Predict the structure.
Amino acid sequence: MMSSQSYVEDRANRISEAIASIQKSIQLLESSGDIAPTGCCIVHYRARGSKKYYWYYKLQASEPIFPTKTGKMTRYKHLGASGTEAHIEALMQINRRNQLEALSRTLDSLMQCWSDLYENSNSDNQS
């Protein structure tokens, strides 16, 4: 039978290993390319040409963060048609951001588990 202290240490090791794994994943993701700002999404819109309609994409932010040619800031960054380099890069940036947000939530949960583990083990030892 495992002692109470040994049981806590085993759980702490599992949490610690999981934290290290998540931190490594975050570092790899951050080094893999640019990350879309929070609040940005890709919008699909239709523009009318002289004879027909065309579909384009733009990166849209909740507040003006993209510089224009005149130096003003705007909420939109035009990406062009489907499959352009700018369009695919924006999709990848949003994907990286979403993955980072999920990893950060997992890391926060693990840190809370770490805290709970030692808070609970200290209260068990005091009783």
